[in-house]
């Protein structure tokens, strides 16, 4: 979050000063890649570098200067997900940092429940064919921590929009009882404030995301970000044409899916129809 704040504010300051990245780098006798990485939010930034940049850009607002210096100090601290860094891909580390700062999260998965909606037992069943038990437990710990931070964090939680495929309601991941509990969890989640949950009916047919899951992160002061796990945990920020395609796709999914009341009724009927004897 601190790196993102620095990325946005320093880019704005440079553009307000009428300088290109190359001009700023030459004036500071830095490499162009250093400026580019700072504005991409992929590196931490020292207070000394921030002071050099704001002087170069002519930033004089004392409140903004103090906030940027504090963000620079925070950008060097360990991230909350540091205990699980060894089980995370570089792409997912980048994504989860943005997720922590998002104002809205829009998620669709065509096969199973999205990670932020999964119970621990359901997640364990999903992971069982993919990895060993020890690694699966740590992944579930991380997923649970993500859910808690997203739903129960100190800051105002983001708006959450989920479209769940109807097929996922019937697929008994982990067996009948695990699936029943998972479906009840969906009902509970759908009744929370700032959560929208809809079910895409089987009659919807094929669409742009028929074979892929995706997440769109929205921000108050920046463009949307697209995350696609099937592309190697790719976080897409600059391919605006691709992002627009998935924005349009998600709006189509929401328009085609059942509304929340109908979705809850369907989930409840499917749950009650699962035989656990």
From TrEMBL:
Give the source species.
Answer: Streptomyces echinoruber
GO molecular function, a single term:
DNA binding
* Entries under SUPFAM superfamilies matching the protein: lambda repressor-like DNA-binding domains
Q: Which SMART domains match?
A: HTH_XRE (SM00530)
Q: What is this protein called?
A: Transcriptional regulator
Matching entries from Pfam families are given as: DUF5753 (PF19054), HTH_31 (PF13560)
Query: InterPro entries from the entry?
Result: Cro/C1-type_HTH (IPR001387), DUF5753 (IPR043917), Lambda_DNA-bd_dom_sf (IPR010982)
All copies of domain HTH cro/C1-type, residue ranges: 10-64
